[in-house]
Amino acid sequence: MKQSWCSFFWAVGVGLMLGVPGVWADETCQSPYLPKVTGHEDFVYVWTLGIEGLGDGSDKLVTIGANSKRPDYGRVVASVSVGGRHEAHHGGFTDDRRFLWVGGLDDSAIYVFDVASDPAKPRLARTIENFVDETGGVIGPHTFYALPGRLLITGLSNAADNGGKTALVEYSNAGRYIRTIWLPKGAEYGYDVRVNANLNRMLTSSFTGRDNYMRRLDELLADGEAMQRFGNTMVVWDYHARKPLQVLAVPGAPLEIRWALQPRHYYAFTSTALTSKLWGVFRKDDGSFEALELADIGDPAKIPLPVDISLSSDDRFLFVDTFLDGMVRVFDVSNPRTPELVYERKIGSQVNMVSQSWDGKRVYFTSSLLANWDGVKNEDEQFLRAFRWDGKELTPVFEVDFREQKLGRPHIMRFGQVDFYRGGPSEALSE
After folding, report:
1. Which pLDDT score is estimated for 123?
2. Which of 58, 84, 393, 404 is the most buried (most CB within 10 A)?
3. What CA–CA distance (Å, rounded) separates 108 from 356?
C-alpha cells in the first residue's frame, strides 16, 4: 500500500521515521519524504558489483522475488548490467519512488533506473557520467537521499587529493545538478546523511577517502599512516538552511545513521567501524545534541568491523552487522541509553547490508562491502539471505548464491511492489 511519510525522524534519519528501502538499506530507515511500502514487498532490488570473469563481469541491478505468493519467490527475476565495474555501492529512490538512483565509488558514475513502468523489470533510464566535474570535484557518491523534488547525495572523497575531504550534493529528480555544500572545517569527512523533519535537523557521518577505500583491506590495516585518515566526527545541521550547527566527536569512523521513528524519540544511532562501538546522538533540553558511547559491538580488539545497522519501526530492536566475522547482533534499544544485546547469529563468512520490512517480520542480508575488502580475511561468499524475525530469533527462508548465479557481489538493497504505482507509466526524465 502506498502512503506518504511525514514523519521520518520522528521520522527518519538513520533510523528514520517512516522508511522505505533506501540508502542505506531498509524500509525503516528512509527519508520522511519518501512513500513507504507497508505491505509485503514483492521484490528486492540489489545493486551488485561485477566480478571479472564471472558472468558478464559488469555491475548490475538484480531483481529478486520476495513474496511467497508469487511464482518467482526466492529467484532471480531480472538483471540489468550497466557495463564495466564501477565499485557499485549505494542507491536510493526519488521522492515519488519511481526512479532508483545508484552510484559507483570508483569513477563516480551514477545510474538511474525506472522501477515504476515495470517493477519486476527495472530499466536503465539515464546515466550521469560528469558528476565530478559538475560538483566541483566531489567523488564517491554514497548515500542517495530523497528530498522534495530532488536527491541529496553524500560524497566520500574529492578529486584534488583522493582524501576524505568531501561534500553534500543536490540534484533534481530529472538529473539536473543544483549545488555542492562542502562539509565544515574540522569535520570534512563524509559518509551518510539522515533528516529529522520534525526537528528540522540533519545528521552526517564520516568515513575515509578514495585512496583508502579502493585499497585491499589487509594492506590498509597494516598502514598506520593511512589508518589515521578516517573520520571521527558527526555533524548536526539546520536541515532547511543546510547550515552546520554542531560538530560531534565520534571516534572510529561512524557510518550508517538511524534516527528513532516514534513521536518524541529525539535520538539517533550509529556504529563506529574501527572501534566497534554503538553510539547514540541525543537531543538535550536546550535543543543541542550530544554523542554518547553506548556499548561494545562484539570484541573491539578483534576489529569485527560494524557496517550496516537497521532500527525496527517501533524503535525496539537495532540490528547491527559486522563484516569480518559475518555476524548480526540484535540490541534491545527500548531504553536507548542502555542497549541490551538480546540475540546474535552468524549470517555467513562475511556480511554487510541488512534490510527489514516495515512490519519487522522479514529481514534480508547481503554479503559485499567493497571489491578489495571482500574475502581478504575470510571466505569470499556472495549471497542474499532472507529470514523471518519473530522478535526472538531469525529463521532462514531462502537464499540466492550470487556467485553460483554468476551475478557478482550483492551490496545495497531496495524493495519493490507490483501494485505500488497507480499513476501509469513513468514520465521521462525531463523538466
Report:
1. 97
2. 58
3. 28
